[in-house]
Amino acid sequence: MNIKYFFIGFLILFSLLVGCKAEDEVDSSIYEGSDLIIGVIGKSPEVREKNINFKRIRLAELESNVAKVSNDYDAVFIMKQYLDQAGEKQFAQVFNELKIPVFFIESKKSYLPFIYDDMTYEEAPNIEDQTYATGIISEEKDTFNYWGYGLYNDTENETNIKDVYSRIFTTIESEVK
Question: What are phi and psi of 90, to 5 degrees?
C-alpha cells in the first residue's frame, strides 16, 4: 500500500514540475501572419518564425536608395553593432524619407539620435526606462510613429528576445503593411 501512495505522490509531484516554467520567460505567440522581407544591417537575429526572410543590406545602400529600400522591404532592422553609424547626422534625413519602419535593436538611446540631425548616437543621452528594441516610421516630414518593445520581467534570455521579434513582426503586419 505504501508503494501505491508513493507512486501516486511521485506522479503528482512530477506533473506539477512538468507544468512549471521559469518565471523569467514569457509564454508568447509566434507570428503567423503574411511573409515578411526584412532588411538587416548587421547579423540577422534568430527567430522562431519560418515566414520571415532576412536580407542583409548596408547603411550605404539605405542612404543611397531610400525609395528602393522602401519598395523592396517590409521593414529594416539595425542591429546593435551598427547603431553608432546609423546615429550619424546624415541618417536622420534617411529615416525621415523611408516609408517603412526601422527597428533599432538594443539601442540604449531610444530613437532620439536617429530622428534629430543635430545629435549623434554618441552624443545622445542614455534612456533609463529601456526597451530591447525601438521602432520608428515617418508619418510625414519630421513626424514619427514610435514603438518600444521590452523584455519580459526585464530579463534577457533567448525566449524573451524571440518574443520581442514576434511582437515586432505583428506590428509590421498590423500597423504598417
Answer: -70, -20
**Ranges assigned E (strand) in 63-123:** 75-78, 102-105
Q: How confident is the model at residue 10 (pLDDT cuts 50, 70, 90)?
A: very low
Strands (E), the chain: 36-41, 52-56, 75-78, 102-105, 133-140, 143-149
Cell representation of residue 11: 506522479
Round to whole Å and give the CA distance between 21 and 39: 34
Domain borders along the chain are 34-176
State pTM to two decimals: 0.83
Please, are residues 103 and 82 in contact by the beta-carbon 8 Å criterion?
no
80 close to 109: Cβ distance less than 8 angstroms: no
pLDDT in tens, 117-156: 898 899 998 887 779 999 999 988 778 999 999 999 989 9
Contact 89, 117 (CB under 8 A): yes
Cα–Cα dist 67/97, whole Å: 8
pLDDT at 20 over 80: no
Closest-CA residue to 134 (of 59, 78, 70, 84):
78
